[in-house]
Amino acid sequence: MTLALGCIADDYTGASDLANTLTRAGLRTVQTIGIPADDLALPEVDAVVVSLKSRSIEAGLAVSRSRAAETWLRGRGASHVLFKICSTFDSTDAGNIGPVMDALRDDCGEGIVLVTPAFPETGRTVYQGNLFVGAVPLNESPLKDHPLNPMHDSSLVRVLARQSRTQIGLVDLAAVTRGADAVRARLAELAGKGIGAAIIDAVFDRDLETIGLVAAEYRLSVGASGIGLGLARALVSTGKVKSNAAGGESGAAVGGPAACLAGSCSQATLKQIASAEQVMPVFHLDPDRILTGADEAQRALDWARPRLAEGPVLIASSSTPDQVAALQARHGRDAAGHAIEQAMADIAENLVKSGVRRLVVAGGETSGAVVDRLRIPGFLVGVEIAAGVPVLRAVGAGGDMLLALKSGNFGGPEFFSDALRLMR
Ligand SMILES: Nc1ncnc2c1ncn2[C@@H]1O[C@H](COP(=O)(O)OP(=O)(O)OP(=O)(O)O)[C@@H](O)[C@H]1O
Ligand SMILES: O=C(O)[C@@H](O)C(=O)CO
Description:
Residues 260-416 form the Four-carbon acid sugar kinase nucleotide binding domain. It catalyses: 3-dehydro-L-erythronate + ATP = 3-dehydro-4-O-phospho-L-erythronate + ADP + H(+); 3-dehydro-D-erythronate + ATP = 3-dehydro-4-O-phospho-D-erythronate + ADP + H(+). One of its GO terms (molecular function) is ATP binding. Catalyzes the ATP-dependent phosphorylation of 3-oxo-tetronate to 3-oxo-tetronate 4-phosphate. Belongs to the four-carbon acid sugar kinase family. The protein has helices at 12-24, 59-75, 97-108, 156-163, 173-178, 180-192, 205-215, 225-237, 267-276, 287-291, 296-304, 321-331, 333-353, 364-374, 415-422, and strands spanning 5-9, 29-33, 47-51, 81-84, 113-116, 124-127, 130-133, 136-137, 168-171, 197-200, 220-223, 258-262, 282-284, 313-316, 358-362, 378-386, 389-395, 402-406. By secondary structure, the chain is of the alpha/beta class. The protein folds into 2 domains: 5-237, Rossmann fold; 258-422, Molybdenum Cofactor Biosythetic Enzyme, Chain A. The model has no long low-confidence stretch (mean pLDDT 95).
């Protein structure tokens, strides 16, 4: 297998978002969980997205895991590696976007790296280096209340400068609009000043196509699904990849009981849970009971098991920003997040033991905990449920199983029913 594109994603939902984008753009793509074991049979593909759970871990660990993934991808022929981060630039001043970018840049000896989280299809645009989520700057969006990495600054030049060893420049929309040569010239100018990374503006998909053409000439880029789209289209338009117009796998139906798990506390997920209450039974976990050692996972399972034969169920830990803040004040941010993720993983493991073969999970960290516990080594990408969220078919041991891993902010209000309708 010689890869046209290697990708390292810092969480599992982000990885499936990117794998979905690459597949829709014509690249045969597989998503692996971590670096695949040598004996994992992978189909012939153009791109591999190695999923890590490195967004919110200690920066040194994120760096070492990303470097190992990069070595594996380059060893399979990937001359360009995309480090996939969140379209809302989820990170803190300690990292992990800057430290990982710095390390990967050192490893591949690149002078300057293009960085953009723009993903216009989901309302993420970048102008003058400022990230907008829909109509509002990042720091006014719901991301200001994120449980793990509240985002308080919309200037990505500043945000990344606080995390990186290198100086950060800007390639503005005016240059992008003038085309690939103008972007190349601006990058050369920045690199000449010793600047090692540049935030690049993008508002429309056509901006990402220009960016993709230039980025593909370098060895490393950093961004969300939008730059993935640009890179994929560049690989196809320059003939480096023959477009696989069919996109996505459409395997046999899996059937059997279905369940949804929500650990995301995003506004989008809260609305989706409220809509699901109209069409399926919903169990609200008590986060305090999880943190104080009560067997809340068992209580949820006792509730779910007798209902599974009747139709899908939803189990949610999600709370409003005020409730999240209060819980974190009582127990600590990391302890609260970790304990709830592990309770979700316990629930997922036991639901699968009870026969569940179709599982929808909301939230990146939550999905990471669940997929790790289920020991799924990788996924093939199926149909798109909503922008950035495909149906995934598990590969490797564990039998036939369909999953959907939803990034916290993605999907319309009816997301859970939309997903289950397509997961047959
Ligand atoms: N009621 C709650 N109170 C505090 N923390 C919670 C609660 N419910 C879930 N959490 C934690 O909040 C975090 C949510 O992160 P997660 O990545 O799963 O969702 P997200 O950030 O909305 O999604 P994404 O990363 O895809 O945007 C997890 O660590 C989860 O365990
Ligand atoms: O880019 C995004 O917004 C998503 O793919 C994601 O990474 C959220 O966890």
